[in-house]
Design goal:
The chain has 10 helices and 11 strands. By secondary structure, the chain is an alpha/beta fold. The chain has a single domain, classed as P-loop containing nucleotide triphosphate hydrolases (Rossmann fold). The chain has a 6-stranded mixed β-sheet, with helices on both faces. The structure holds adenosine-5'-triphosphate. This is ABC transporter ATP-binding protein.
Length: 266
């Protein structure tokens, strides 16, 4: 499925969050959505998922609006992984992952073998099979995120929109998660992930969209987006750069002084 935004604007209360955003999310690419806190990444992701209405402009799904597409068809086409937060449902992890199959089941439909198989695949892929009998509310932050990712993967939707999927994960699981999102894109899915780790974004993503100042500051391959000028203008940082095995890395090194954040004088 191709998701497009057309002159999209978003507001929260009286505030304008995003203005005139024109993007296309294509199948077969892993896109990182980056930008400073409050730039509007979650806001944009929810709009791309058809979970919120724009203040102005349109979002289309293979050329049709969310209403024309229908809620059920959208739920089958787009898996949405929300930003991690507490989960209060007294559910076992396996039952939570099974909820990812709901869009495939009729109102009175039972659990088919295909549903069980999708749940098993998702639990194995996210290294969460051993957590299946745990009550979700008792899981650690990283374990919970892997179970929630498994729920999104169990949907087997052609589009996966993930809000900070690696934020709570340890380094090993971060790398595994980024690799599985990239593999999903290689198999034809359209994958968008909100990310704060710029090295993971540079290494694994095909494309980065940098939100700052109420819109898209840069959009393209990582090397064209993660320039010193863009990082200074968006995050107010200077970075150290390097290369390992032919792949780039960058470390946020200095917060640059700004009129509201001056370094202390001795
Ligand atoms: N319901 C709301 N009422 C008021 N302001 C809101 C509301 N929802 C979001 N905002 C504001 O909109 C802006 C964008 O929020 P959003 O969650 O999209 O940012 P983000 O880029 O995902 O940030 P972060 O990196 O911190 O997760 C923020 O300044 C936030 O405070």
């Amino acid at each position: 499925m191709r998701i497009e935004t057309h002159a999209l604007s978003a507001t929260a209360g009286e505030r304008t969050i995003l203005t005139d955003v024109n993007l296309a999310i294509e199948p077969g690419a892993f896109t990182g959505l980056i930008g400073p806190n409050g730039a509007g990444k979650t806001t944009l992701l929810r709009l791309l998922a058809g979970l919120a209405e724009p203040a102005a402009g349109r979002v289309t799904f293979d050329g049709r609006t969310a209403a024309q597409t229908g809620r059920r068809a959208l739920a089958r086409a787009i898996a949405y992984l929300p930003q991690s937060g507490p989960v209060h449902w007294p559910l076992r992890a396996e039952a939570l992952v099974l909820l990812g199959r709901l869009p495939h089941r009729g109102a009175l439909g039972g659990i088919a073998a295909a549903d069980r198989a999708a749940v098993e695949r998702a639990l194995a892929t996210t290294d969460a099979a051993h957590l299946r009998d745990r009550i979700v509310g008792t899981l650690s932050g990283g374990e919970r995120m892997r179970v929630l990712l498994a729920r999104a993967l169990a949907t087997e939707a052609p589009v996966l929109l993930a809000d900070e999927p690696v934020a709570a994960l340890d380094p090993g699981h971060q790398l595994a998660c980024m690799a599985l999102l990239r593999d999903a894109a290689r198999r034809g899915s359209g994958v968008v992930a909100v990310l704060h780790d710029l090295t993971l974004a540079a290494r694994f993503c095909d494309r980065l969209i940098l939100l700052a100042g109420g819109g898209v500051l840069a959009d393209g391959p990582p090397e064209r987006v993660l320039t010193d000028a863009h990082l200074r203008a968006s995050y107010g940082i200077a970075v150290h750069r390097g290369e390992a095995g032919g792949e780039p890395f960058l470390l946020p090194w200095h917060a640059l002084p700004s009129p509201t954040c001056q370094p202390e004088t001795p």
